[in-house]
Give the backbone structure.
Amino acid sequence: MEKKVVKEIKKPKKTKRDLSTVTGMRDILPQDQKYWERVREVAKQISKDYDYERIDTPILEYSELFVRGVGSQTDIVEKEMFSFVDQGGDSLVLRPEGTASVVRAYIQHGLLNHTQPVKFFYEGPLFRHEKPQSGRYRQFFQFGFEAIGEDNPALDAQLILMGWNSLNDLGIESVIQVNSIGCKECREEYKKALVKYYKTKSKLLCENCKNKMGRNPLRLLDCKEEGCRSLREDSPQILDYLDDACKNHFMKVIGYLDELDLPYVLNPYIVRGLDYYTRTIFEYWAIDDVEGKNALGGGGRYDGLIKILGGREETPACGLAMGMDRIVAKMREKNIEVPEERIDVFVAQLGDAAKKKAMVMYENLRKNGSFTVSQAFHKDSLKKQLEIANKMRVKFTLIIGQKEVGDGTIMLRDMQGGVQEVIDFNKIERELKKRLEKYNEGAVIDLTQNEESENKIEMSGNISSEIESLEDQKEDIEEIEKLDLEK
Ligand SMILES: [Zn+2]
Ligand SMILES: [Zn+2]
């Protein structure tokens, strides 16, 4: 009987039919897109500024790529991969991170033969089956940069700079945490020293750290548990274990960061969780996130990865990835304003003949390319159209009514100042261009100063009070006639 009850409780979970997002995943609604758009814009600009070229890799990859690349002993591979066997029997995963895929592409397409380093920029969704908690999503987004085929420390410093610049350009203050975990050789020595140290204290470690000690002792250093944190104060320091080559490389990176006057701290406790890192590693912490609970991004050198994934020869590389979800959350938390792009021209119409003419005119304006345009041809009411235009905060509205169709004129309304004028239908594009130029210069548009213009001018009141006064379709017609300067 008991068994049966359990079964009945469990069953609905497996055949979950309520049509909402999958646990840990979310929709990004239109009203939130401006933040994402801004982040993508900045990322793209940085990629151009430092010559990183866009690459898109598939969301699905063979599991083997991450087992070998990220490491079978890491959290990602042990428990966080969305993996499944497809109809053909292949073991696939939704990519949990970006670097391994980019390296696979580098090897697969023989980019070793191109001028080195080959510099990539990517942006897109990644998937990890993490414990759901606030601010963490199972589908999350990153943009990243990877430079493959070069070991010069200037490259490390420049990548560190690029990540910092992207945050700074978005208005987020951050501090760079930087460390070196050495090459494979010096790190082995260090791991031994760490295990030796922690073995004597193992009773004081959290369960997680006890488990990790034998397999991935570096992870003990970035455990967030209070007990483990206090233990690390006396732990051996990686910098004392670096061989000369690794130490020199790191000192050069630090030297460039000093020269660039970047806000960084040497943090011997950041280790990044993935097996492929070597030498320089770094993270970006928001200035008010002193414990680094929500790093906004990070990266490092991964000189061994290309060989691990089947590259022909040792190929040094370095990269970084930025967490877009956390960046957007930080922008909102800090009330960072995202400049909204305002539409230049809204095309409004009244009456059947006018609507036809307006639709054709709209296509011409759109193709002109000098303006951003909008419309609401699905509305017949002028009042409703003007409300929409007002809500969009468009710069100018063109209004065409029956009378205008007959006259071959159109009404141009400056939505800010409320100034209206009638212009020749055939001169719309020229007139608009002229006014937008002035608008963009920030000049107060005073059409009364325009001597060439024979246009009639009317100053009218606040648009919203005007719209309020427009109550129905009939009044629309009266209104457009009123707007039309009692011609
Ligand atoms: Zn070394
Ligand atoms: Zn711990």
